[in-house]
Amino acid sequence: MKSSKEKMIAGEIYRAMGRELFDERQYAKEQLHIFNNLAPSKIKARNQLLKKLFGRTTNLFFIEPPFRCDYGYNIFLGDNFYANFNLTILDCAPVTIGANVLIGPNVSLFTAGHPVHPETRAAGWEFAKPINIADNVWIGGHTVVNPGVSIGKNAVIGSGSVVTKDIPANVVAAGNPCRVIRPIDERDKQYYYKGERMPNLEE
C-alpha cells in the first residue's frame, strides 16, 4: 500500500496528516526560518541551505528572502534562476523550473489543491499536480500559478495574473484567468517598454 507521501508525489488524492509529511514540513519550516533571518550579506550561506533543501539547484541562482515552501525536495531549479521577495511554492508535487527564469515579487506557485465538495474537503483529503515552467520565462509580480499548469518557453506572464491553464511558448499572457494577449516577435527586440527603443548593445 502506498504511503501518503507516495500518493502525494504521484498526484493521487491523499491525506497530509501522517507523521512523515508533518515532520518533513516542519524541517522545511526550520530551514527557511534560518534562511529568512540570515543577514543580507550571507548570500553563500543562504544558497547552501537551499541546495540541501531543494531537489535540484545549480551554482547560479538567487532567491530574495522571505521565501516559503512546503517541503523543498520537490523544487527543481534550472540555471540562472532569480526570484524576488515573497516567493511561495507549495511543492506537494514537483515544481520544475527551467534556465534563465525570472520571478517577480509576491508570486505563488500552488501545486496543492482540495476537493470542491465540503464533506470530502473537511475529511482532510487533498491532491497535488505538478507545475512546469520552461526556459526563459518571466513571471510578473503578484501572479498565482495553479496546480497542473505548464508555462512554455520564453513566455511572459503579466503582473497580477491567475494562471489556471497551460500557456504556450513565445507569448505574452495576462489576466484573471490568464489568457494569451499576443505572440513575442522581432519587434520586441527593438522596443522594451511602450515604444521605448532598445539601445545599441554593441556600443
UniProtKB/TrEMBL annotation:
Gene3D superfamilies: Hexapeptide repeat proteins (2.160.10.10). Pfam families: Hexapep, Hexapep_2, Mac. Keywords: Acyltransferase, Repeat, Transferase. SUPFAM superfamilies: Trimeric LpxA-like enzymes. InterPro entries: Hexapep, Hexapep_transf_CS, LacA-like, Mac_dom, Trimer_LpxA-like_sf. Residues 5-59 form the Maltose/galactoside acetyltransferase domain. Coiled coil: none annotated. Its EC number is 2.3.1.-. Belongs to the transferase hexapeptide repeat family. PANTHER family: ACETYLTRANSFERASE YJL218W-RELATED, GALACTOSIDE O-ACETYLTRANSFERASE. This is Acetyltransferase. It comes from Sphingobacterium griseoflavum.
